[in-house]
Each structure stands twice: as structure tokens, then as C-alpha cells.
């Protein structure tokens, strides 16, 4: 189970992505990026954030810590922005919180070099979860103190929008042509050899166990939240086995020579 905290102050919207997450403070005095259950993409975005985020962490990637954030919409009453006001009103109860990374820079593939092994691990992981939201246009990675962090897994596991066809996703390919790390020569087969054996039923089940029941309840075709969790485990487990054989990467390309000093120095101050 994720730690449960309560939002105490809405600070500001983060307008970079599409879902309008907000920076909030909570009763543990930690700043969080709040992802709203009432956002347009719905609660499945939050389910994907938890399962993929926890799985990524278990596989050794840097992912900001996750909590559930209880929201009383009253904290947004003074919010002048209509869109934010609506989001807060529609999101009473359990939302997702992600530890805010201070002084983090958005990943820029022209300014930061990733070695082929790390690029391979990230591309393989994105192939596993079918993440369509880590392109060079919208990398959804942050750099803090010279280290790369993964964020925003909300647009992955598309199969959870149609569970009846989910089993077919075990064999579907992953197009990484536009992936933010495609230009770094990602070593996907090596990453698969290292990571796929770690993606056991137990590991995925642990990640799925962290999803609050309220986001899984009343899923059509399932009797209980645990039955939905098992469906996530099965699809990811099946996909892990051979997905590396079906990753499309662009041919050729010269990776850049080095990360400029200001990227690493600036972030570690
Ligand atoms: N944990 C975090 N720490 C610092 N900044 C963050 C964090 N999470 C998100 N952000 C910032 O907020 C933006 C939007 O968040 P994101 O999770 O990508 O949501 P979406 O794209 O769905 O709107 C990110 O591009 C990033 O600039
Ligand atoms: Mg985003």
C-alpha cells in the first residue's frame, strides 16, 4: 500500500503536459505533484502511474516516490483559474501524489547524453508497458543532479481500456522510432536479458497491490479489485517474455558527444 497523506494547500498548476497536474503541499510537509482522479483521462491514468512507477523502481530506475493524496476540494475554493477549480471539485477523495523533484530540468536529448545500456533499459521498459509518451517531443524524463528520472507513465498499458482484447498485446510490437532515447543506440536485447527475468509474477503483483481499491472497483468484467490486478499481472508477464524482439528503432544516427557541464553542474547546486 502507498503511504496516505492529505493535501493541505494547492500551490500552482504544472502546465507542461496535458493533464494539468498541480503542485501541492501535504500534511507531511512534503511538496508533491498531484495527479487528479477527476482529470480528463480518468482514473486509469493513475492506475498506470502506480503499476508502472512501482515496477520501474523495483527494476532499478529512478522514479519519484508515490503516495496517495487525499483531497478535500475546499482547498481550491480560492483558485481563480476555472479549469483548475473544476479539476479540484471533481477530484475529492483519493488522488495520486508524486514527490516533487526540486531543481530538476526537463530532459533534452540535445543536451544530455545517455549511455546505450541505460537507454536500452529505458526503451525496453517502455516497450514492456507500451509507453507512448516518451518521445523526443515530450520526453517525460527529468534530470536532477546529473541523474535521469522517469515520470509520467499515465499513457501506458493501453490494453486496460479494452480488457477483452488484452491478451493480444503479449505479441504486439512497440514502435520506438520517436523515442526520446532512440538516438543513443539503445541496447535493447541486453536490457531484456537483464530485466525480463526480474519481471516475475510476484514483482508485478507487488506493484499492482499498491493501487488503491477505489481506482479498480466496478471495472466491467471483473468481480473484485484483485481480479483486475491479476489481469495487469498476466498481460505484463506475457509481454515481458519476448517484447524485445518486436521493438522498432530507427537505423543509424550518431549519438551526441557529451553532456554540457551546465546541465550537471547547474542541477547539483
Ligand atoms: N515529480 C516531479 N518533480 C518535478 N517536476 C515534475 C514532476 N512530475 C512532473 N513534473 C513537471 O510537470 C510536468 C507535467 O507532469 P506530467 O507527469 O508529465 O503530467 P502530464 O504530461 O500528464 O500533464 C512535467 O513535464 C514536469 O515538468
Ligand atoms: Mg507528461
UniProtKB/TrEMBL annotation:
Superkingdom as given in the UniProt entry: Bacteria
Q: Where is the composition biased (Low complexity)?
A: 250-261
One Pfam family assigned to this protein is HipA_2
Q: Where is this region: Disordered?
A: 247-269
Where is the HipA-like kinase domain positioned along the sequence? 14-230
Spell out the protein name for this chain. Answer: HipA-like kinase domain-containing protein
Amino acid at each position: 500500500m502507498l503511504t496516505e497523506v492529505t493535501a493541505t494547500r494547492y500551490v500552482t498548476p504544472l502546465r507542461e503536459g496535458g493533464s494539468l497536474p498541480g503542485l501541492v503541499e501535504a500534511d507531511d510537509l512534503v511538496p508533491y505533484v498531484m495527479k487528479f482522479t477527476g482529470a480528463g483521462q480518468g482514473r486509469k491514468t493513475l492506475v498506470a502511474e502506480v503499476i508502472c512507477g512501482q515496477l520501474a523502481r523495483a527494476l532499478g530506475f529512478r522514479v519519484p516516490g508515490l503516495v496517495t493524496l487525499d483531497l478535500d476540494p475546499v482547498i481550491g475554493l480560492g483558485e481563480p483559474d476555472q479549469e483548475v477549480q473544476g479539476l479540484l471539485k471533481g477530484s475529492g477523495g483519493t488522488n495520486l501524489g508524486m514527490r516533487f523533484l526540486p531543481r530538476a530540468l526537463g530532459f533534452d536529448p540535445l543536451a544530455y547524453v545517455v549511455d546505450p545500456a541505460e537507454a536500452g533499459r529505458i526503451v525496453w521498459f517502455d516497450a514492456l508497458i507500451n509507453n507512448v509518451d516518451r518521445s523526443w517531443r515530450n520526453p517525460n524524463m527529468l534530470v536532477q543532479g546529473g541523474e535521469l528520472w522517469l515520470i509520467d507513465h499515465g499513457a501506458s498499458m493501453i490494453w486496460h481500456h479494452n480488457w477483452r482484447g488484452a491478451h493480444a498485446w503479449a505479441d504486439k510490437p512497440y514502435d520506438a522510432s520517436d523515442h526520446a532515447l532512440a538516438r543513443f543506440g539503445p541496447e535493447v536485447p541486453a536490457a531484456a536479458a537483464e530485466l525480463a527475468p526480474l519481471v516475475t509474477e510476484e514483482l508485478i503483483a507487488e506493484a499492482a497491490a499498491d493501487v488503491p481499491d477505489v481506482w479498480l472497483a466496478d471495472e466491467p468484467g471483473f468481480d473484485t479489485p484483485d481480479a483486475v490486478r491479476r489481469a495487469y499481472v498476466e498481460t505484463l508477464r506475457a509481454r515481458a517474455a519476448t517484447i524485445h524482439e518486436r521493438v522498432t528503432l530507427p537505423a543509424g544516427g550518431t549519438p551526441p558527444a557529451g553532456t554540457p557541464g551546465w546541465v550537471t553542474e547547474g542541477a547539483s547546486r
